[in-house]
């Protein structure tokens, strides 16, 4: 090999080494600058991929959407299961309650009006109803007991927080979830409708919801009368909208419901 050829080959090899070194350094830079970027693109609560309570709900990483079928007294439209709430449960079981009394509120309706979230309030006035008619008190109870325990809604998690922003996010998200997961529609599509005489098997109810949404729900009964449905979710990122909620299979048994002879009474 001539001297000129050797020099050319050396220059080529040096260039390749520098390019490889630069590429490797560039690939490492994001991980050095922000270790959180090493997380998988999909980071679900309860998966252990993040312990940052502002990035994923923790310790209450299992969230429940709960709906009522109140037939006596009849509450809400006769073709809608009304909202009970959205509850953060611990990944390991159990739940925390009333986590921050400094953020308790007694007038949720006033907060929503003040935030120009009247669309949320209008929906709640139709579908998030207290069986005794004390709707605003019921909403306050749900926020004070459960909403204050959603870690990603803590004010310090917001980049440009405005007063009561987390309250609006909580109720907007709950109503969005309620729109998406209609127990009445899921059952009706399987031929399961309210009746004063007909009865149903628990397996029919579970199969109907699973067929529509991919996972079942946990049903609650009073005696043999169907009364409540619970949907289970993990969250991906902050739970400031329903898009963060990823449904999973029920993790609780059907409380008090017999296997057969379940009555789905009309309102």
Folded structure, characterized:
The protein is of the alpha+beta class and 267 residues long. Helices cover 35% and strands 15% of the residues. Strands 1, 2, 4, 5 and 6 form a five-stranded antiparallel beta sheet that branches. It has a two-stranded antiparallel sheet with strand order 3-7. Helix 6 packs across helix 7.
Descriptors:
single chain; alpha+beta; RNase_T2_His_AS_2; 2 domains; signal; EC 4.6.1.19; five-stranded antiparallel β-sheet; 267 residues; 7 strands; Ribonuclease Rh, Chain A
Count of domain modules: 2
CATH superfamily caption of the largest domain: Ribonuclease T2-like
Estimated radius of gyration: 26 Å
Mean pLDDT: 87
Q: Helix- and strand-based class?
A: alpha+beta
The CATH class of the largest domain is identified as Alpha Beta
**CATH fold naming of the largest domain:** Ribonuclease Rh, Chain A
Low-confidence stretches: 1-40
How many strands in all?
7
InterPro entries: Ribonuclease_T2_eukaryotic (IPR033697), RNase_T2-like (IPR001568), RNase_T2-like_sf (IPR036430), RNase_T2_His_AS_2 (IPR033130)
Organism: Pseudozyma flocculosa
Active site: 84, 142, 146
Signal peptide: 1-19
Short summary:
By secondary structure, the protein is an alpha+beta fold. It has seven helices and seven strands. It comes from Pseudozyma flocculosa.
């Amino acid at each position: 090999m001539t001297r000129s050829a050797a020099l050319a080959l050396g220059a080529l090899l040096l260039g390749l080494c520098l390019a490889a070194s630069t590429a490797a350094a560039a690939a490492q830079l994001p991980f050095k600058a922000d270790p959180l970027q090493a997380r998988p693109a999909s980071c679900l609560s309860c998966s252990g991929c993040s312990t940052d309570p502002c990035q994923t709900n923790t310790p209450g990483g299992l969230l429940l959407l709960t709906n009522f079928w109140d037939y006596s007294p009849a509450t809400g439209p006769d073709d809608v299961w009304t909202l009970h709430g959205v509850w953060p449960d611990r990944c390991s079981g159990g739940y925390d309650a009333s986590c921050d009394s400094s953020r308790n509120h007694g007038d949720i309706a006033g907060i929503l009006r003040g935030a120009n979230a009247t669309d949320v309030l209008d929906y709640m006035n139709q579908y998030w109803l207290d069986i005794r008619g004390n709707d605003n008190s019921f909403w306050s109870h749900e926020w004070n007991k459960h909403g204050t325990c959603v870690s990603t809604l803590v004010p310090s998690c917001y980049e440009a927080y405005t007063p009561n922003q987390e309250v609006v996010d909580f109720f907007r998200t709950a109503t969005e979830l309620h729109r998406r997961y209609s127990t009445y529609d899921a059952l009706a599509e399987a031929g399961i409708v309210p009746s004063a005489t007909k009865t149903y098997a628990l397996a029919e109810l579970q199969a109907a919801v699973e067929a529509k949404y991919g996972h079942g729900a946990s049903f609650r009964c009073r005696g043999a009368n169907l009364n409540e449905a619970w949907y289970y979710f993990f969250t991906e990122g902050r739970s400031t909208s329903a898009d963060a909620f990823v449904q999973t299979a029920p993790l609780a048994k059907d409380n008090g419901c017999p296997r057969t002879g379940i009555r789905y009474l009309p309102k």
